[in-house]
């Protein structure tokens, strides 16, 4: 029966027409499959599948999650953790450089190298540092794990920079990008000082561009 219908179609339409129709349908299906496949690739790492939750809607999202951590954990918690580390890293990078120029009175604060200054902190100082950090963590613990607000938003905006939705998005993007750069920077500062024995500013002073 099928052979009869096929032969009849060939008589009225021609063998080439049927062949072209079949090829065009296969090509169309292939293009659709290819477009779906390409759309599922990560924008940051095109050779990997895109993480399911990273669709580009959150600030700073470039689809970079090669371990697919976001697929298995709460995305708001991961965002809050990254923002916290970004903010700490930005303060750390600034303080690492400021240590070489700003000193309080006393021999304890006279060390220029940030890593060497750690060893000059007395026991009482460490107790104060740990106590202060613990109080901050306790005070923000409930807010961090209550996902009824935007991650990283503690309501602290004395200048009102986040009133405009457009500017808010822009500042969120800037915070994430600068924070990620600061995390890389503070690691680089520490590694450079450990390897060379010189502080960041001392290395810049001996840098020869020409």
TrEMBL record:
Segments passing through the bilayer: none
Positions with a binding annotation for chlorophyll a: 70, 82, 85, 175, 178, 180, 192
Domain of life: Eukaryota
Keywords: Chlorophyll, Chloroplast, Chromophore, Photosynthesis, Plastid
Residues reported in the UniProt entry to bind chlorophyll b: 87, 137
GO MF term list: chlorophyll binding
Gene Ontology terms: biological process: photosynthesis, light harvesting
One GO CC term on file: membrane
Cited InterPro entries: Chloro_AB-bd_pln, Chloroa_b-bind
Subcellular location: Plastid, Chloroplast
Annotated protein name in UniProt: Light-harvesting protein
């Amino acid at each position: 029966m099928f052979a009869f219908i096929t032969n009849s179609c060939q008589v009225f339409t021609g063998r080439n027409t049927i062949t072209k129709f079949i090829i065009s349908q296969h090509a169309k299906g292939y293009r659709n499959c290819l477009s779906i496949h390409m759309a599922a690739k990560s924008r940051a790492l095109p050779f990997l599948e895109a993480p399911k939750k990273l669709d580009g809607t959150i600030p700073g999202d470039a689809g970079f999650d090669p371990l697919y951590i976001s697929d298995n954990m709460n995305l708001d918690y991961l965002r809050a953790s990254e923002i916290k580390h970004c903010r700490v890293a930005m303060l750390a990078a600034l303080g690492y450089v400021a240590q070489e120029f700003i000193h309080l009175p006393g021999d304890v604060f006279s060390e220029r190298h940030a890593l060497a200054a750690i060893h000059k902190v007395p026991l009482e100082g460490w107790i104060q540092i740990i106590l202060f950090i613990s109080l901050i963590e306790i005070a923000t613990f409930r807010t961090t794990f209550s996902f009824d607000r935007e991650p990283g938003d503690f309501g602290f905006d004395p200048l009102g920079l986040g009133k405009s939705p457009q500017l808010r998005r822009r500042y969120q993007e800037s915070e994430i990008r600068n924070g990620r750069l600061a995390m890389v920077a503070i690691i680089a500062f520490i590694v450079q000082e450990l390897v060379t024995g010189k502080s960041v500013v001392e290395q810049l002073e001996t840098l020869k561009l020409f």
